[in-house]
Write a structure and sequence with these properties.
The protein is of the alpha+beta class and 172 residues long. The protein contains four helices and eight strands.
């Protein structure tokens, strides 16, 4: 269910939004981030994602968000959940007068050799790939795009390509 602008404003002002983040990892152990155009987190590098609509199943929301944010469908059942997190912002898409609160569910999408993305320009000005071990210490990447690093560390701790001593401020 898509809300009218005034209804959405009321929801942001008085409620909590539920969102899905897409933590996309390529075969070089890098995570996709985009420079956000809109508030909140405007100007920061952030993983792609979007909010879940009322009466939309998690599976349908995930597939819709993948298509709109990555230009390709991915199967919800083939991803790995990375936890649930609070995101608190002092501003919102409506300006500084209204804060935003999200409950966020990031999911790991591991790209295959044949996956290609068609990244849209609506939410992010530019895109780039960042090595997992560089994510924690890059101040241009928003802190809420780092909250899942513990889960990534747990998942890839035994892999040769991820050295925990390279992760800054991450408990592994």
């Amino acid at each position: 269910m898509y809300l009218k602008k005034e209804d959405f404003r009321c929801l942001v002002q008085h409620g909590v939004l539920f969102s899905i983040d897409l933590v996309v990892r390529d075969n070089q152990n890098r995570i996709l981030v985009g420079e956000r155009i809109n508030r909140p987190a405007q100007g920061y590098w952030f993983v792609p994602g979007g909010r879940v609509y009322k009466n939309e199943s998690l599976t349908n929301a995930f597939e819709r968000i993948c298509l709109s944010e990555l230009g390709q469908a991915f199967r919800y059942q083939e991803t790995m959940p990375l936890g649930l997190y609070d995101h608190f912002y002092d501003d919102s898409v409506f300006g500084d007068e209204i804060s935003t609160h999200y409950i966020n569910a990031p999911y790991l999408i591991e790209l295959s050799e044949t996956d290609t993305l068609n990244l849209p320009p609506e939410q992010h000005r530019h895109y780039r790939w960042v090595k997992i071990e560089d994510l924690a210490c890059d101040d241009s990447i928003h802190r809420y795009s780092k909250v899942f690093l513990d889960c990534l560390c747990d998942r890839f701790l035994n892999a040769d390509y991820l050295d925990p001593k390279n992760l800054v401020n991450v408990k592994c």
